[in-house]
Amino acid sequence: MLNTxxxxxxxxxxxxxxxxxxxxxxxxxxxxxxxxxxARDLAEKLGTKAFQTYEEAVGNLMSIDVVSVCVPTPVHKxxxxxxxxxxxxxxxxxxxxxxxxxxxxxxxxCQDKGVKLFVGHVVRFFPEYVRAKQVVDEGKIGNPAVIxxxxxxxxxxxxxxxxxDFNSSGGLVLDMIIHDFDFLRWCFGEVERVYAKSxxxxxxxxxxxxxxxLRFESGAIAHVEGTWAHQGFSTRFEIAGKEGIxxxxxxxxAPVVASKKESVSSGGVAVPxxxxxxxxxxxxxxxxxxxxxxxxxxxxSAEDAYKAMEISLAxxxxxxxxxxxxxxxxxxxEAVQ
Amino acid sequence: xxxxxxxxxxSHAFSYADALTQLDGVxxxxxxxENEERGKKVSSQFNTExxxxxxxxxxxxxxxVIISSENSRHYEHVVxxxxxxxxxxxxxxxxxxxxxxxxxxxxxxxxxxILQTAFPVRFNTPVVxxxxxxxxxxxxxxxxxxxxxxxxxxxGWFVDPAKSGGGAVIDHTxxxxxxxxxxxxxxxxxxxxxxxxxxxxxxxxDCGLLTMEFDNNMFATLDCSWSRNENYPTWGDxxxxxxxxxxxxxxxxxxxxxxxxxxxGARWNFWGDDMDKALVEDFITSxxxxxxxxxxxxxxxxxxxxxxxxxxxxxxxxxxxxx
Lengths: 337, 323
Description:
- The complex is a heterodimer.
- By secondary structure, chain A is of the alpha/beta class.
- Chain A has helices at 11-22, 36-46, 54-60, 76-85, 100-113, 127-137, 166-169, 171-175, 178-188, 280-294, 302-321, 328-336, and strands at 2-7, 26-32, 49-51, 66-69, 89-92, 117-119, 144-152, 191-198, 209-216, 221-227, 234-241, 245-249, 256-261, 268-273, 325-326.
- Chain A folds into 2 domains: 2-119, 3-Layer(aba) Sandwich (Rossmann fold), CATH 3.40.50; 123-270 and 301-331, Dihydrodipicolinate Reductase, domain 2.
- Helices cover 38% and strands 26% of the residues of chain A.
- In chain A, the strands form 3 sheets. A 7-stranded mixed beta sheet of chain A has the order 12-11-7-10-9-8-15.
- Chain B has helices at residues 12-22, 36-45, 54-58, 74-83, 98-110, 125-135, 161-164, 168-172, 174-184, 275-289, 297-316; strands at 2-6, 27-32, 50-51, 64-67, 87-91, 115-118, 142-148, 188-196, 207-214, 219-223, 239-244, 247-252, 257-262, 265-270, 320-321.
- In chain B, the strands form 3 sheets. Chain B has a 7-stranded mixed beta sheet with strand order 12-11-7-10-9-8-15. In chain B, strands 3-2-1-4-5-6 form a 6-stranded parallel beta sheet, sandwiched between helices. Chain B has a two-stranded antiparallel ribbon with strand order 13-14.
- The longest helix of chain B is centred in the C-terminal third of the chain and has 20 residues, at 297-316.
- Chain B is globular, with a radius of gyration of 19 Å.
- Classes of the chains: A alpha/beta, B alpha/beta.
- The interface between A and B is large, with 35 and 36 residues.
- Chain A: InterPro entries: Gfo/Idh/MocA-like_OxRdtase_N, Gfo/Idh/MocA_Oxidoreductases, GFO_IDH_MocA-like_dom, NAD(P)-bd_dom_sf.
């Protein structure tokens, strides 16, 4: 039985906490949030304890084996290191950090302390993405050629509006479409070159829209669309290979749609759902817990998280310079050859 | 009005010919095609006279010609027609090189004939509706556009660079670039492109992703790949995602379809308005009224310049300025 502590009672903290409560081999021992009322609300709902600080939780709890870090990106490092200091395994939300140097420090720190560091690149646990990779791996569409992904919806709302602060969040490109970068790298290997454009610095309205082109070492080309300019969250992908095409659009998958008449004159509301027995966050967290219990390698490693950040940061650099950015790893390899 | 047609090398000629037969007071006065078998076949199909030599067709009392030859032949055919005072509707891309496109424009000006580039997508009804929505101002300022114009590798002369000037990039960049220019009045300043030959066994580009910077601080991407295979339910697409400061607009030019499932698999059967017919009708009206064409040779050149810059960018792996 592993005892887990969740830091952060926002959207992701709530998701982690709810998943732990469902797991048979895990006890959710507490929720920490500097906004104690928020922590209390969530703790009450899930039958666990609320704390205002990590230190308070540590002082009051008998044992904590795993810490889930679900706070804004710039604070990840602080909590990951605190947890590692006391030999607790860490499950950190993505992106791992705001800068590559922080990410590297965190990975080394956890290695030195002998604790496992997992990063929540949950798209690798979404069944539609897993299935697409499987179809590609089975060779059913031949060699992948042009891949397109889309992710986004409205501008995210969170504590202190931290997503709006580019220096904290890295915006859409670091926070959101890093999911797609990780997925694409998982499926198609290393990225050689990145070119990107974003609405950031072009408009004053609260929206962000980015279009990124990736060239893989395999030759495949990917187009990644990220949006915080639309209404309603959706994800899409299309993989065109030499011999076939895979398409998916979450907005078109609605096996259950409940419609309610609001009044005689006005229309109603339709609530589409695509229910599964377990949500992908549960699957992901259960996998990380299993990796701790059995001391096995995860489907997505901290190094993968670092690599995904490299792509995001290269895209941000390209947006800023207007030039194509060749990934460091590629250049180093060429220098070695 | 009597219209001649030069070459059926590009299959769009079939729908243009169909359109001509449906228009009141318009007659296909003859078809010239150096491919005799093809020329005779289509001449009998459209119930008109066949000419082996296009000069003989141009000597007929015709008002205008529709040129649907290989890209590299456009210049030769345009010059011949313009010199005999015939107005011209020329298939896209206007030419396979910038030089030819410029000369095409010049000769038509000198000879005082109408030159229209065939960009039928401007006459697709959903695309037109989207223009009205943009012009209403409800999207605010346009920030970005994401376009696709995918297709199926046509093979034949399309995969022979000497005749086509290139593959997917030259074939499928021009439509969407033209639409974005038409929608926004902005010009492409810079192009970056990743281009590849990853799908067909022909030695020609069949994958392309362009990123464009415009002179109004807007950006756009375009997927011009020949990435649809024979089992995909349709030939390709034209889609646009337009992001404005106060709203977004999604356009799928060929979404008006019924889905058909039979021994051929699953196919999409389009029932929307016929854009090729509307294009031809518009050209005929311009000729009749002697007015400036709705889509000029310059429009054709601007769109072609982006495709040519895309090839250059993909070689340099850097963005390239567009003049």
